[in-house]
Design a protein that fits this description.
With about 350 residues, the chain is mainly α. The protein has a domain at about 260-340: Leucine-rich Repeat Variant, CATH 1.25.10. About 70% of the residues lie in helices and about 0% in strands. It has 21 helices and no strands. The chain has helices at about 1-45, 50-55, 65-70, 75-85, 90-105, 105-115, 120-130, 140-145, 150-165, 170-175, 185-195, 200-205, 215-225, 230-240, 245-260, 265-270, 275-290, 295-300, 310-320, 320-330, 335-350. The longest helix has about 45 residues, at about 1-45.
């Protein structure tokens, strides 16, 4: 008993000692952080009015820019960090002036070098800075960074390429999605590609035949978002035959945005009970978005579907097709799906 009590007491003291050490460590870290913040505020203080003047677009004579460009040593390091933060929030001439300061300080060149740093954090920050600085000359380096071993670096490189907006990077970004070991997240790639303009249309068409389903999905999504009608034949083909359900759904949504009268039949073929439910819903929603009166019979036939969500989508589509669509709803006024669709439509009109 005495030995057991001594062991418990010893363990308790040890735990308390560890807790005290952790508290002291937290206090020390916070104190160090506070000292660093105060030091940086002191270093930035003389430059802050000039930084604000440039960011506000009020430095017409370039006096404030020259003051910022003249910063040296530790003040310059702190200033550059603050400029990078501001570049995430401002555009136009003020952003261009701040980029000039970064270039004069050598920060852009240093970022290009840092893309090969051993530190993944430094590589990611470097990619972000190059993007925010719209450093077009760094596009080849950022394309290489799409294959970086660290996912945060790959994401930052794609983000930077999107900011730069060079359509020449569209192919590498799409290819990076399907990389077997170092793939780029589809959402990150799509966001980057959105900023690359109409010059990516042919690259998207080629990507619709890519071996990787996520690449095909992103290409289909962007084809619809950017209204690239040249992709329609490929979207129709993939809707019919692609082996990946998500790709087929995405193609249906894209056809709903881009399609024509002939696409009513294309979409309606995949609303039957023999198709996967997710694809049926996607095609019904696409028929509504297509806005073709020829879709009324296909949508009306689905008002009594056993899946309530699909019936609601059909009702919503009919509501958007004018008088012919509303006529098809006669006799279904008490259907829950129709009532739900009408409620959603009225809320949308009220918030418009």
């Amino acid at each position: 008993m005495v030995i057991g009590g001594a062991l418990i007491a010893g363990a308790t003291i040890a735990v308390l000692g560890v807790c005290v050490l952790l508290v002291l460590l937290v206090v020390a870290v916070r104190a160090r952080r506070h000292r660093r913040q105060r030091r940086e505020e002191m270093l930035l203080s003389p430059l802050r009015p000039h930084l604000i003047e440039v960011a506000a677009g009020e430095d017409d004579e370039g006096v404030a820019v020259r003051q910022l460009t003249g910063a040296t040593d530790a003040s310059r390091t702190v200033l550059d960090r603050n400029i990078v933060e501001l570049l995430t929030k401002i555009r136009g001439v003020p952003a261009e002036q701040l980029v000039e300061v970064l270039e004069a300080h050598g920060a852009v060149e240093a970022a290009a070098r840092d893309l090969t740093s051993r530190s993944a954090v430094r590589r990611a920050r470097a990619a972000q800075l190059l993007g925010l600085a719209r450093a077009g000359g760094a596009v080849p380096l950022l394309v290489n960074a799409l294959e970086d071993e660290a996912v945060e670096v790959r994401n930052s490189a794609a983000y930077a390429l999107g900011l730069i907006g060079d359509a020449a990077a569209a192919g590498p970004v799409l290819s990076a999605i399907g990389h077997p070991e170092r793939g780029l997240p589809a959402a990150t790639a799509a966001e980057a590609l959105q900023s690359m303009g109409v010059g990516i249309s042919e690259v998207l068409r080629e990507a619709l035949d890519d071996d990787h389903p996520r690449t095909r999905m992103v290409a289909a999504h962007l084809s619809g978002e950017r209204s690239f009608t040249r992709c329609l034949p490929d979207l129709r083909r993939l809707l019919e035959e692609d082996g990946d359900l998500t790709v087929r759904e995405t193609c249906a949504h894209a056809i709903g945005r881009l399609g024509r009268g002939d696409d009513v039949e294309v979409l309606a073929r995949h609303t039957g009970a023999g198709e996967p439910l997710a694809l049926r819903r996607a095609c019904v929603a696409a028929l509504g978005e297509l806005g073709q009166p020829a879709a009324v019979p296909a949508l009306a036939a689905l008002l009594d579907d056993p899946d309530p969500r699909l019936a609601e989508l059909a009702a919503a589509g009919l509501l958007g097709l004018g008088a012919d669509g509303r006529e098809a709803l006669v006799g279904h006024a008490d259907d829950p799906a129709v009532q739900s669709a009408q409620l959603v439509a009225s809320l949308q009109r009220a918030s418009a």
